[in-house]
Design brief:
Helix 2 packs across helix 3 and helix 4 packs across helix 5. Helix content is 28%, strand content 24%. It folds into three domains: 155 residues, Rossmann fold, CATH 3.40.50.980; 223 residues, ANL, N-terminal domain (Rossmann fold); 109 residues, ANL, C-terminal domain (GMP Synthetase, Chain A, domain 3), CATH 3.30.300. It has 539 residues and is an alpha/beta fold.
Length: 539
Amino acid sequence: MTQVSAGASPTLPTTPTGSSLQRLADEAWTRDAGRSALYFEDRGWTGDQLANRIRRLSGGLRAAGISPGDRVVVCMANCPEVTVTYHAIWRAGAVATPVLFLLSEDELRHVLTDSGAVLVITTPEFLPKVTAAAADAATIRGVVVAGEHGPAEGGVPLLDFAELEAADPAELIDRDPTSLAALLYTGGTTGRSKGVMISHNALSAAAWAATATSYDPAQRTALLALPLSHVYGLMVSVMSLHTPEPGVTVLMRWFDPVGWLQLAQQHKVNASPLVPSMLQMLLQQPLEDYNLTELVRLNSGAAPLPRQVIDDFRRRLPHVEIAEGYGCTESAAIIATSPLGQARPGSVGKPAPGVDVRIERPDGRAAGLDEDGEICIRGAVVMSGYWNAPEETAKALRGGYFHTGDVGRLDADGYLFIVDRIKDLIIRGGYNVYPRDVEDVLVQHPDVVTAAVVGKPDPKYGEEVVAFVQLTPGSTVTPEELVAHARQHLSAVKYPREVRIVDAIPLTSVLKTDRKRLRAQVASETQRAPAATQATPPT
């Protein structure tokens, strides 16, 4: 049976479960004293300073009427106030409900209504959208604004973040570690987004497992450009609760490749968690013009990383390890990680400490080694369930395992390889085509920056393979040439019959390829794209 688990590391000072996040935070603040630091836009804070802000804001939230178990929506761009807010919410015994600021007003309204949130905390640039959405949510009592802002609109009471933070420090309201810490909404690729219930234990176990495999006291300075409102960024932001020695975090408001390189050079950054689209953007920059000698490791997660990207980084920055990991919202962002110095190209690493991975065949039986099947997991990191959705919860957690919807395989050494999403599978003439296989071949072409492959309804084969590609600036390669390139390296079933050159591949709010948008585009078309950007050779 293909099932692999990893044990706990004995080097960490805490166990992954058994304490609420704020109990762990109190212990970390005592352990670290004033040594840990956070830098943001040329300002710095010690751990003691952040802890004081958290205690005061928690007192302010309680004075505003927040009670244990209440959901508090956090819709903010990256800034120190996001981390302060999360911990203040947990200290008050409440539940953090992070949402990406890129959500539409309608999507945000759904989250507010579905979660039954009582408060929203935001920053001025998103205030109009937040107040408009909050006006239709019956449970919302007010909107907290961190920064200068105008008068209230839509009749929703406004509260000032700084005034709440001026409250007297609050004592910890400890919570059962199995209780809800975060309610995270999925992207809604198959309809309305669902609330994923993450307990204190699950989020703590995920951060602990990530620390167990990636912590290195020599890599003390990390650059964090991930959205803190995404599960990956949320998990990374609490890893410090488990590190034996405090480190330094440099926080970006939002990612841009030039700004990232400047900060990496300025702060002598050792490590940084990123997503594949960010790595691809960095490769378009003159990396060699920056002093990145202190950079040791780049962790990639949230989406598949093309092998060509790894090879390009190895060629240009040979001293930097590119380490893939794998997780999802329902696993608090972690399922597999690449231990320090053990990254294997093409693999997302080994099952994280405390996580059991099972590869399952369509009939429910366990797959063999190197056999493709659905990735199923169990362990402390797994969600408690979907919010107010018992049937969907039972389906996802059937048999005691969470069924990820991803296809993968395990090799004899315990390394996990991701094949693709089940829902992204293209069935052409009865044969399975995984988009990632086609994309990996296309990005090997020197003129291709990135690619996205989807299926298009076809009367003869059921589905046809369509590729969207973004080229390097100044490239003159034609769609016909790219089809020929793919045909050289792929079977007759897999190679794309259409290649469309686009200015940019559309991305979701968490910087993943927006396949839903591309599928909708090709499915709705009634005529062919212009010949200059499309090639359709004979079958």
